[in-house]
Amino acid sequence: MSTTVVTGSTSGIGAATRAALREAGHAVVGVDLSGADVTADLSTAEGRQRAVDAVLDRCSGRLDGLVACAGLGPHVDDPARIVAVNYLGAVDLLDGLFPALRAGSGPAAVAVSSVAAAHLTWETNPIAAAVDSGDFSGVEKAVASAGEYRGQFAYAAAKNALTVAVRRRAVEWGAAGVRLNTVAPGAVDTPLLRAGEDDPRYGASIRGFTAPLGRHGRPDEIASLIVYLLGPHAGFVHGAQFVIDGGADAALRPHAV
Ligand code: NAD
């Protein structure tokens, strides 16, 4: 039986992924703020280290899969916390658990990014310098120009940086035999999306935009893609980003290939 770690395992896409993996016969170690196998606050360096240590302890240093899914939505009015959870909460776990994945069987990892990753480029990403220097103390200032929409700016910046982080690791991870990809969901019906719909700044635009397929995604639909990417049928899939958004990105940016 293979063992996979899922962060953000108690809600939304993470919970659906945990359920799908279990149904497929895999052991799952869930990580979340509460109610999970491993309880940790991924917004802090201590919490991220505690999560890595607790997972290594539980899996005896050998892991077959990792899904970095925990995240906060753009409605959260704390850019530093959004970047800490959505970027560092994923990348520090990827890096911290890489040695255990190398020791696993057919190992693979998936980071949950977002279609928002393509809302800016690395060259215009306000946290690119922080990512490269490792000093995240200036995040608030870096996104301040977005005013009351700084949460959205920080969210897109963190997801863009996460997708770049995965691509940057493709050579080293590929050589080590550990596949690593991102999924980039559009609007998926979860508590995170519903909080955005209820937010006075974002609610109208979220409710007013419908993907070409005419609905939001379901968490289990994203989980299906993640399970595929972790499994042997995706054996040559590495360093790639999979948009899963009901056609929204194609409708908004038809020439962006
Ligand atoms: P959700 O709110 O249902 O689940 C997020 C999970 O992350 C929760 O279980 C929460 O407790 C956990 N989490 C938050 N902060 C944490 C912290 N500091 N430490 C540990 N765990 C923490 O949301 P979701 O929609 O299922 O989101 C899952 C991922 O999918 C996120 O990374 C999100 O950015 C991404 N995503 C979601 C959508 C969408 O429309 N729902 C779209 C694109 C990307």
From TrEMBL:
- Origin species: Prauserella muralis
Q: What is this protein called?
A: 3-alpha-hydroxysteroid dehydrogenase
Q: What InterPro entries does UniProt report for this protein, alphabetically?
A: NAD(P)-bd_dom_sf, SDR_fam
Q: Which residues form a coiled coil?
A: none
Q: Which Pfam families match?
A: adh_short, adh_short_C2
- SUPFAM superfamilies assigned: NAD(P)-binding Rossmann-fold domains
